[in-house]
Amino acid sequence: MAQLSQSSYLKDLKWLSLSKCKFGVDGFNELLASKNLRSLEVLLVSHNKIKSIEGPYNDLETATDKQIKKGIMKL
User: Which of 35, 42, 47, 74 has the CA that lies 20 to 30 A from 65?
Assistant: First the structure.
């Protein structure tokens, strides 16, 4: 996840699916801290080792119940 979050190829990315990639909370936090993902609008992270996350993530909008069930977080 560290390598991915540092990649400049992600700079203009709007949508990213990382489902079933076997990363945990540390990788998720590293991804969210990346300055290369500031254009990201949709992030799919279902079926990973993320049990819970701590915030605050002030730039996250509230996800609907349907989106949460699908593992979608709206940025």
Answer: 35
